Amino acid sequence: MPSRLIESLYEFKQITSRDSLVIVFFHCASWSLPSEQIEPIYEQISDLPEYRWLYFCTVNCDHQPDIVSLNGGPYPIPNVPTFIIFRNGRELGRAVGNNKATGIRNFIRNFTPPPHPPPPPQMYHPSGPYYPSN
């Protein structure tokens, strides 16, 4: 699923307050070459089924000064591009810079939910289930 563009502080707070993990890509498309380079890679990653558990969003820093301040503010973003993972309104992690696909995936991997443990093996006997005696 393509990432969602966040267009207000209210929307930002609503989305980042979710119980599930949210990654927000902060960029400045009008003047940042690294942001321009990483945006299509971020969109490709957001479409991968292996990351369907993660909600992908973007914030254009040029258009959202109420969310972001490059000089310090509600969400200080001193450099772009910046990727932040949120849950329940709290920042859990941050990566800064043009990290390419591998860097973004490695950053996300730090927050990957643990896999469900496999079911215990069952032993079968031709006459029915086998239950070892103690």
TrEMBL record:
<dbReference type="InterPro" id="IPR036249">
    <property type="entry name" value="Thioredoxin-like_sf"/>
</dbReference>
<keyword id="KW-1015">Disulfide bond</keyword>
<feature type="domain" description="Thioredoxin">
    <location>
        <begin position="11"/>
        <end position="109"/>
    </location>
</feature>
<dbReference type="InterPro" id="IPR013766">
    <property type="entry name" value="Thioredoxin_domain"/>
</dbReference>
<dbReference type="Pfam" id="PF00085">
    <property type="entry name" value="Thioredoxin"/>
</dbReference>
<feature type="compositionally biased region" description="Pro residues">
    <location>
        <begin position="112"/>
        <end position="123"/>
    </location>
</feature>
<protein>
    <recommendedName>
        <fullName>Thioredoxin domain-containing protein</fullName>
    </recommendedName>
</protein>
<feature type="region of interest" description="Disordered">
    <location>
        <begin position="109"/>
        <end position="134"/>
    </location>
</feature>
